[in-house]
User: Fold DUF4190 domain-containing protein from Thermosporothrix hazakensis.
Amino acid sequence: MTTRPIKPHAAYRQIQPVRHEPLEVHNLLWNRAPATPPVRSSYVAPDANQYHILFTGLVLGIFSIAASIFPVCGLPMALAGLVLSLLGRRIGAFQKLASWSLLLAIIGCTLSLLNIGVMLGIYVLTYL
Assistant:
């Protein structure tokens, strides 16, 4: 009587490693462009208009502090400087300058509003 070799069950078969072809060969075989990651750069060179907008916001912020004595001209200057400095915060190259511009505009706006409050308080106490 001869014995036959026992075949192992399918679940116990030794798994052969799958050979994958390199991605370049695969792309050439299927007529695809080579897979290269997109080049993303966070730095975009600002143009002159963006610099002028931000610098105008900085100058308005500085002048709004001095003009906060007169709330009629100090508050609009501060608000304009605030808007321009917020627009300048989108420019990646000038983040520090935009932060200073925003800070000066907020200080000018606060001083102008404080001056308006004091003037209204004096007016109310004097005439009412």
Summary: Residues 71 and 116 are 6 Å apart (CA to CA). The chain has four helices and no strands. The mean pLDDT is 80.
